[in-house]
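Hi team, as promised in this morning's meeting, here are the two structures we talked about. I've kept the exact order from the run log so nobody has to guess. The first one is mostly here for context; it's the second one we should focus on when we meet again. Sequence first, then the predicted structure tokens.
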Amino acid sequence: MKTVLTFLLFASVAGAAENAYQRGKRVVNEALDALGGKAFLAMEDRIEAGRAYSFFREQLQGLSVAKIYTRYLTPEAGKVSVRERQNFSKDESYGVLFNETGAWEVTYRGARPLDNKRIQTFRDGTLRNVFYILRQRLNEPGMEFFSQGSDFYENRPVEIVDITDSEGLTVTVSFSASDKLPVRQLFKRRNEQYKDFDKEETIFAKYRDVGGGVKWPFTIRRFRNGEKLFELYSESVQINRNLTDDLFTLSSKTPILKPERE
């Protein structure tokens, strides 16, 4: 109880000395420093390897060995400036590829273009991912940081910040008050089928140093409207591995399959 009262008193005093925008920016900058500061900003690529679980209506639908390759590009406002390949098999014969020219589901049969909905979901989720924002978008024109103040998440004190870009897209992030790292993010995405909004939630945990002082979460869990969608439990995370273009592009020998009907 004493710890809780101390936190609330400190948060109240600190909040009185700065407005919501100043406090929001400070919390975000503290998070960047906690993740590695200049070393985090200099991270060129990343490999996350571990176990992935997918769910439908809270029921386990799939378990796979996962290896996710990411490479950052020169930031461009409003664009997804990253390449990503998600492999979900031991021999890496099955996965999904996203780059600046398109997106495909890749199997031993060939590459099938993803439908527009999946591409838009990836784009929206990437642009509002707190780690992508910290690495690629902090200095983007129109970015705003608005503190919602302090609160508790799973019995631990957090600082809550709304991050909004020039298009009005907002993600609400909870940062640990003790180690300053992101622990949770929330945003709403329009559901075109039901003409309402889905609440997308991601939880980050078990941070480790992955090299040069850079920290990364080894547990990532995603929910939609409170229902579990996806879990990734990394066994290793490596950064700055000089990932080459061939990993993020289709070979000229890869058959291009017909898109599935949307």
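And here is the second protein, the one for discussion:
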Amino acid sequence: MSDIETVPLDFVRYEPAEMEQRSAAFLAEMRRRRTVREFSPEPVPRSVLEDCIATAGTAPSGANKQPWTFVLVTEAEVKKQIREAAEKEERAFYGGRAPQRWLDDLAHLGTDEHKPFLETAPALIAVFGQKHGQEADERHYYVQESVGIAVGMLLAAFHHAGLATLTHTPSPMNFLRDVLGRPSHERAFVLIPVGFPADGCRVPAIEKKPLGDILIDR
């Protein structure tokens, strides 16, 4: 450490009671987060979208390479192009590409090849992972892991700001790079519609695993 430049850590330490209150409050807030497929077309403040994307940009990454690009799509024509290309892939998926077991596992979510939310939602965030930097010899490390962490923080930031989201991953997603004019060293990771839920929006009755099923003490 003595040979590298450092800065003081900006860290706030809380008393145990406040730590418990803050962690419990955040858990309660995140338990209200749900995937939404019915969006209102009502626009959302640009500043909120930018703040949430900037929050995602604070995520840790391999060697601090920050191997991500967030493309904010709000133009109706571009959203239409994305929907048309996505639904083409989804028709192939639901029409024979996906094994029956996969389709059976999706059935309780009520999802199919029709993706109107890609046009209805006021904003789409296309997240790309960068295989390398602008120059091919600028290596990036743990790209999938790094981008995955950033996306998790992005979803939490949107929910905390009062917006609903959906993680959409049509396979393959090469069309996103073509529609959005991204370079060949970027690969689409996920497409996130974001906005307010439609009036009367309903979501599938699902449950998350209890803590006892996901936590192991050693």
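Starting points for discussion:
The chain has eight helices and four strands.
The two ends are 32 Å apart (CA to CA).
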